[in-house]
Amino acid sequence: MELTAEQQQIMDGAKGAFLAKCMRWLVEWGAAMGARRLIPVTNTHALVTVPGNLVWGANQKTIDNAMTLLRPACQHRVCCHSTTHITFAHEEQYDEIEMPQEQVEAQLEVMEMAREAGFLMTYTCAPYLVGNVPLKGEVCAWTESSAVVYANSILGARTTRHGTESAIAAALVGFVPEFSVLLDENRRATLQVDVTAQLRTPTDWGALGYFTGKIAGLDVPVFQGTPQPSQEDAKQLCAALATGGGVTMCHIVSVTPEAATLEQALGGNPPKLKVTFGDSELRDSYSQLRIHTGDAIDTVILGCPHASLNEIAEIALYLKGKRLADELKLWVCTAYATRANAERLGYAKMIYDAGGYLFCDTCPTNSMRLDAKRIVTAGFKQAHYARNMIKAEVIVDAVKGCLDAALTGRWSYVG
Amino acid sequence: MSDSIVIKCRGLVKGKAEGEALVAPTTLSFWGEVDPISGRIIASGHPLEGKSLRGKVLVIESTKGSSATPLVIGLAHAEGNAPVALVNINVDALAVLGCVVNNIPMVSELERVPFEIIETGDHVSVDADNGIITVTKK
After folding, report:
1. Does residue A89 sit in the same domain as residue A216?
2. By the number of CB atoms within 10 A of the CB, which of A33, A356, A392, B134 ranks highest?
3. What's the predicted TM-score (pTM) here?
């Protein structure tokens, strides 16, 4: 790979050993992916946290391991707008999730160091809901696959799928290897999905994403025939696309900035494959994540990816004046900033009064040993991963179906 | 001692390693389908469910899914429970990153279909520096 004089100097240690290592990671990674150069990056979203709690089985060794990355990283300043992906507990929730003392201490140290380094600790999987909204064409280095798909497909920004080390390296050295969707030719759609199913809820959009992600592999899908999506619809579509497979971006005709028309999305080429998403495909997507042996449920999880203020308002108003079923746990997951706003507006109290919980900075799948037997959730992504990670039966349904289940303690198919 | 089979390939992440092959002509998501500490595949219904990645040469179509892939590889690596090398058909950028950061050799673009030659339990030696893997049947 060809490096500029400045990049070569950083690689040679002009800015210290750690940034030299960051540069080496980016160069070796880029070379393997076919990148010919490193280009400037102006927006990053990185995981800056100690490893999570019980699901991750974090112990002193994993904390020490994380610290060997984070301590030297935070000796430097970020080069650009850099927000943070989820952490594993908000400071008010350490008791709630039974976080061991050594992890609490390590996390407090990380937060202090990271602030000094210039990271903006949004602690969310949906940074585009709390102010990190890159513009069309902006080169970013984002982690969190659902957010990557959203940034590329809805905002028209450009980011490959980053891991912790590459996003932190990009934030500190200010460059990323140029491959994948950073290049125009890799942003063109190759898989055409004709949508004939009626998409009525954000979760229906999740079903579309889950179906497409499974067949797309590394292809770029284009959706035609959909109604105009809401922000929540787009969020569910992007999250589910990244769950089923390795999708980095999609096009929605007339929504994606680069897809005014189907022809523009395809870049003048015929699609490699054309599929239809009709009512039977919609039903099939749901039935894959509705495998259960009974109707009694104990846990409802909403806010995957993190809930918008609009979703929280809808949930709160639906629950206002009602009580959840006995022993039922309702977790609504969101960013700290969104929760603060929900508290100010009174929506948080409506959820608490009903017996639910507004959980911020993380989600129970990531941070808790959930003692759940049967979970209902509105996110295809959550449902997909929770099956293996929590070892519970998981049912996916629209938000209203989830809330009805939370109120009655039972889930039944309404259609 | 049976004969060895040599397959040319492209070295993506440099290095050499050898171990027992763990083979499945399918994808694997490190996040959610692998326990990061024990290095065991936990996905119900996955052809490699219950198998440990520790010390193995992982021969699969590709990794997929979450951007936590490098993190899970790193956690398993810190515990000594990561695979020693990756042999993949399709290249997932996140697996490459996980291998770069943790110094795990990775190869792709094999001149023969590995699933027709390598079986779980075979001994595989991966030389990503020279783009060669050597298979010794069990």
Report:
1. no
2. A356
3. 0.95
